[in-house]
UniProtKB/TrEMBL annotation:
The organism's taxonomic lineage, starting at the top: Eukaryota, Viridiplantae, Streptophyta, Embryophyta, Tracheophyta
Protein known as: Uncharacterized protein
UniProt entry keywords in alphabetical sequence: Signal
Signal peptide residues on this chain, from the entry's feature table: 1-22
Amino acid sequence: MEKPFLILSLLMLALNIVHVSSQSGKLSASSPLRVMLEENVR
């Protein structure tokens, strides 16, 4: 019961991080965290 909620919350957190990164400019677009997130999405 708790696992789908955990996965969903992690997904929302990742989306928020990517959104904030894209809002803060091109500098953070090449950050290791963003690259790691994109690798995990694939």
